[in-house]
Write a structure and sequence with these properties.
single chain; about 120 residues; 3 helices; about 80% helix; mainly alpha; rod-shaped
Length: about 120
């Protein structure tokens, strides 16, 4: 009988350890996804600031300089559109992970919040 109790305790401890390791892995995945979303958003903010600085007219500008600015501005706008699409894909993956079982349990315990997608006016 003592051997049976020992086996049951070992099985229970094994299951508990497995659950703990799974929760740790899920938590780490949620943190990685959340950090990727935040990093992507910061990169977009930097590009938007650069775009704004390029578009501000500070006095007379030579025609060639104006053309270079316009080309750079168009390139930045394209880059921002691409970055927003990538950001939205990350947000979708993150939000899906937050609502899927069993990661939704870990997300609830650690107060992870959903993020919002960005929308660009065309």
């Amino acid at each position: 009988m003592t051997a049976f109790i020992a086996i049951v305790l070992i099985v229970i401890l094994g299951v508990a350890l497995l659950l703990l390791l799974s929760a740790i892995a899920l938590y780490a995945r949620l943190v990685r996804l959340r950090d990727a979303v935040r990093s992507s958003r910061l990169a977009i903010d930097v590009k938007l600031k650069e775009c704004h600085e390029l578009s501000v007219n500070e006095g007379p500008v030579a025609d060639a300089d104006f053309q270079r600015r316009q080309t750079r501005l168009r390139g930045l706008e394209d880059n921002i559109r691409h970055s927003v699409r990538s950001y939205n894909a990350l947000v979708r993956d993150y939000n899906t992970e937050l609502s899927a079982f069993p990661s939704n349990i870990v997300a609830g315990l650690f107060k992870f919040k959903k993020d919002e997608s960005l929308y660009l006016e065309e």
